[in-house]
Design brief:
single chain, 379 residues, alpha/beta
Length: 379
Amino acid sequence: MITQDPNTLRDGSVEQEELKTYAGISHRLIVIVLNAGRKRADARKISDSLWIMPTNSFVSIASPLIALRIARKELFFQGRLQVDLVAAQDAGFAGFTGWLISRIFRKPLHLYIRYNVFTPLFSGSIRKFFRASIARALAQQARTLCVGSEAVHTALADIDVTLADDATVIPYSIDVQALLQEPVRADLRAKYPQFKFIMLVTAPLAASQNIETAIRVLAEVARQYPHAGLVIVGEGPQKGRLESLAYKEGVGDRVVFEKWNPNISSYYKTAHVCLVTAPYEEYADTISHAAAASCATLSSDVGMAGTIIKDGESGFLCNPHDPASYSKKIMLMLHDPMLRERVRLGGMLAVEHYADDANHRDTYMQSYKRSWENAIGKN
């Protein structure tokens, strides 16, 4: 399995627990994690059937080649790669890496496409168009596909009916109890006592995430409630621009930037609200994780928002291009703490009902297993 999720490297994380579940439906699961940057991790055995091997790349672009080297060094002997299947967990960087390994060693490729990367909104820039094109090419190279929603399944059918025939719809599953039991290692309320109401954004500092809207939301809220603050967790090329915007909007001293923290559940648990302002794509599983961690969530209609959020009951659906649609809902919760409490608990229960039901999780894993077996069994 190839993944880009750095949380899989942290012992005790929800993401690593999920890998153990995947390992439980396979004879042996080797996970290559495409991590990059200064933080290094050791390759190690997690359980009798699960091994994790990080690439520890200095730059992300080198990760596929390092992953290929790991596969050749650790898994290739007796003249062949000693695995039955290469499974990639997205249709981007991990998907390309999975395709590269499967192509060189002539192993079937299984691809999981969680989000609708085929939406026409991706045609707004060369980068988005290129990413969507890569996803299309990878989908056509995969032996079998799993998709996270009917929207992705329909998009595949529009590309090629045979792609949709090879795809299994498997909605996202999350272990809510495991996430709730994770200890709080970073308490935002203790760290930033000057903020009596903390708004949280967890996303790369990239144009696609539209974090400008979150800053403008804070500016509108601060005019009525000067004790509000915004914590932005993420890294990327837009940081300088976002800092300048914060000062321009008069909230430069109320916006805090933090580097990505692998124990992100602590942030969700200790913030008052989580904002998702991306116009077309949810980053990672922000909405599910924020709601599961019992954080009131205000989101654009992306990713899992439409499934989890019932407006005013388990969260709020807002317009990513209209800061007022967020600020009005936040002011409602500030004036009515019981409303925020109902929304907070409603979001957690919605995730639990949708993604953590025991029967759902069993069905989820069995569907995944059948998809793997189909990929291996196809000629």
